[in-house]
Amino acid sequence: MSVRRLDPVQPESFAFTRENLAWARETIKKYPEGKQASAVIPLLWRAQEQNEGWVPKPAMEYIANMLSMSFIRVYEVATFYTMF
């Protein structure tokens, strides 16, 4: 079992590119009202692709805000699955 922790060196901020933001909004619309948090995995994956293979804390915070989730819920998903 591996231990997953945030890297102590983090970027100042994160934001999706204009194209990725449009994609994220369309992805979120695919989920029923009140179930948008289900989009967390695809959004984390897109953030990872945009950020050269890793998901920094600011990206998790950004996604949490987009999905009206607490940061810890996004962090739990990102650290549970080995693809992030």
Describe this structure in words.
With about 80 residues, the chain is mainly α. It has a domain at about 40-84. It contains four helices and no strands. It has helices at about 20-30, 40-50, 55-65, 70-80. Helix 2 runs antiparallel to helix 3 and helix 3 packs across helix 4 (about 70-80). The longest helix is centred in the N-terminal third of the chain and has 12 residues, at about 20-30. The model has no long low-confidence stretch (mean pLDDT about 95).
Map the helices and strands:
Blueprint: H1 18-29, H2 40-50, H3 57-66, H4 71-80
Decide which structural class fits the backbone: mainly alpha
Poorly predicted residue ranges: none
Instruction: Please estimate the helix content.
Output: 40-55%
Strand content: under 5%
The best one-word shape is: globular
Mean pLDDT: 95
Biggest sheet character: none
How many strand segments?
0
What is the radius of gyration computed over CA atoms, rounded to a whole number of angstroms?
12 Å
Distance between the termini: 15 Å
Q: Secondary-structure element order, as H and E? A: HHHH
Number of helices: 4
